[in-house]
Design goal:
Blueprint lengths: L14 H4 L11 E6 L2 E6 L8 E5 L3 E2 L1 H6 L5 E3 L5 E3 L11 E2 L5 E6 L2 E6 L10 E2 L3 H8 L7 H11 L1
Parallel strand pairs: 7-10
Antiparallel strand pairs: 1-2, 3-9, 4-6, 5-6, 8-9
């Protein structure tokens, strides 16, 4: 009769090995500072192209909650899921719109990740394009305050 097989020894996995997913935020140092559109989120260190910078977090709203919400931090993930990012622990809520963004959004399994569209230098404000619908309804009527549009307005005024 064969002797029973020994149980496999569990080998602890280091946190560094577990950080292999493209969708794991990189733990970059970021700061909320004054920006042209109010407050913005700025890089305090270099961020490489393609890096996952931060996740946009908050509770998922029901359709009724979404229709009655009165804040500017709603992120529509799908037709049936909207995230309420109002909580100040959601640092990603400070990322402003830009017509020439350095970040882009990737949605993975119902979660929203902010990715570096290009290499980002220390001191640069993080920004992504909010989408045509949001732009037309909320930004265009008051004028876009992103760096690209502000510079274009100055040149036009000369």
């Amino acid at each position: 009769m064969d002797s029973p097989r020994p149980a496999r020894e569990r080998i602890p996995i280091s946190p560094e090995i577990m950080k292999t997913s493209k969708f794991t935020p990189g733990g970059f140092r970021l700061a909320v500072k004054r920006a042209s559109a109010g407050r913005g989120l700025f890089a305090l260190e270099s961020i490489p192209k393609g890096a996952c910078i931060i996740e946009y977090t908050g509770p998922a709203l029901t359709e009724e909650e979404w229709l009655n919400a009165r804040n500017r931090y709603l992120f529509k993930v799908t037709e049936k899921k909207t995230i309420d990012g109002w909580n100040k622990e959601n640092t990603a809520r400070y990322i402003n719109h830009s017509c020439r963004p350095n970040c882009e959004i990737e949605i993975r399994k119902g979660r929203v990740f902010v990715m570096a569209k290009r290499a980002i230098k220390p001191g640069e404000e993080l920004a992504y394009y909010y989408g045509k619908e949001y732009f037309d309804q909320h930004i265009k009527p008051i004028g876009c305050k992103c760096l690209k549009c502000m510079l274009a307005a100055r040149v036009k005024a000369r």
